[in-house]
Input
Amino acid sequence: MLSKRLLAVLDYLAVDDYVADIGCDHGYLMASAIDKGLKKVQLIDNKISPLNVAKKNLASYDAKAHIKYTLSDGLKEIDKGVNVACICGMGGDLIAKIISDEKEKAKKLSYLVLAPNSKVANLHQMLNKLGFSIVDEKIVEDHNKFYFIMKVSYGVPSLPLNDIEISYGKYQLIKEKDVYSKYLMLEKQRLETILKQNKLSDTLKKNFNNELSKIEVIINETK
Output
């Protein structure tokens, strides 16, 4: 059974996509993708151990789909026919580096599905810089942690993200309003608690107050 986070990723994949799972780990996402009806997948990992585990886990799927296993870093050896890449379960900085390192290959994809487990703002910033647009974005709560799941594409007409969207996602697109509201309120409470500390420098106070203001803008605009 996939986690809520990976189920949200799976929801973005269409049955006629040829999907590469970057950092495939044990292969559960692509197993579920094949169960959904996808006929071509590529599992890529830079470590042989998880790749071998994925091969074992997907052994019974060989008759259902064309499965390619690749020991490689990021998008370097992505198959030419792949039109979608999933990059999940790693920090936003690393996802940003994977895309930036092979940006020409990333730009040619129909879209990418990204699920960072940290540094979301850094990833938003890099996507902005490289000209990738967020086509859709979700937020899920999984084991008391919040995850942004985003579908991004290059060359899709869209306004660049503003400062608020870089920090807290393209909130105009997020449909999970209850989950998003909970996330914002917890972030607001966290920032307010930090600001009560007496030892904060003026610079830190300014930064935290700035983030608090961003959250309050979203809360007011999404009521």
Summary: The chain has a mean pLDDT of 94.
